[in-house]
Design brief:
InterPro entries: Integrase_cat-core, RNaseH-like_sf, RNaseH_sf. One of its GO terms (biological process) is DNA integration. Residues 1-156 form the Integrase catalytic domain. By secondary structure, this protein is an alpha+beta fold. The chain has a single domain (2-168), classed as Ribonuclease H-like superfamily/Ribonuclease H (Nucleotidyltransferase, domain 5, 2-Layer Sandwich). The protein has helices at 39-53, 74-82, 99-113, 121-137, 149-168; strands at residues 2-8, 13-21, 28-34, 62-65, 86-89. It has a 3-stranded antiparallel sheet, sandwiched between helices. A two-stranded parallel sheet has the order 4-5. Strand 4, helix 2 (74-82) and strand 5 form a beta-alpha-beta unit. The chain is globular, with a radius of gyration of 17 Å. The protein starts with a strand and ends with a helix.
Length: 169
């Protein structure tokens, strides 16, 4: 999980994009975008991500972040503790230790932010939503057997279901 900045040239203002990526299947599970990004936004986004990806009885994932103020806040720490989420913070100045989200954010910069000038926040958010649909559902990944993240994730589940079925026989 990490935060990236975008820019609305029509208003000469920045906006924030907080993204959470599943490092196994590269699905960007949840994203927050807004004119500010505080600890409460990080907590809400993480809670929504967990709700959308976990079923009853699933093990909680490890959450890896940098040491941004949102992630070192008491609120984020209390939430992690109350949900029994392991929160790993990478050492300062080591973005390579959070490579999956850093890579995704560089792709987002290359494919969207550097190619578009946004006049309004709404325009930026609409374009970001369109790009996220493309990224998760249609963008092929060499590391995912040339499948988009959502397709790869579904494919892996069919393999797991098949394996469980054969073990039960």
């Amino acid at each position: 999980m990490d935060i990236k900045y975008g820019y609305v040239s029509g208003l000469e203002r920045f906006f924030y994009v907080l993204s959470i990526i599943d490092v196994f299947d590269r699905v960007v599970v949840k994203q927050y975008r807004g004119a500010s990004c505080e600890a409460k936004h990080a907590v809400q986004t993480l809670c929504y991500a967990l709700q959308s990806r976990l079923s009853a009885g699933d093990e909680m994932p490890v959450i890896r972040t940098d040491n941004g103020p949102q992630f070192v806040s008491k609120l984020f720490g209390d939430m992690s503790e109350s949900l029994n989420v392991v929160h790993e913070r990478i050492p300062p100045r080591t973005p390579n230790m959070n490579a999956y989200i850093e890579s995704f954010h560089s792709i987002l910069e290359r494919d969207l932010f550097s190619k578009r000038a946004f006049k309004t926040f709404e325009e930026a958010y609409d374009e970001l939503d369109r790009y996220m649909d493309f990224y998760n559902n249609r963008k092929m990944h060499g590391s995912l057997k040339r499948k988009p993240p959502v397709v790869f994730s579904a494919w892996v589940k069919t393999l797991e279901d098949s394996s469980a079925f054969h073990k039960a026989m």
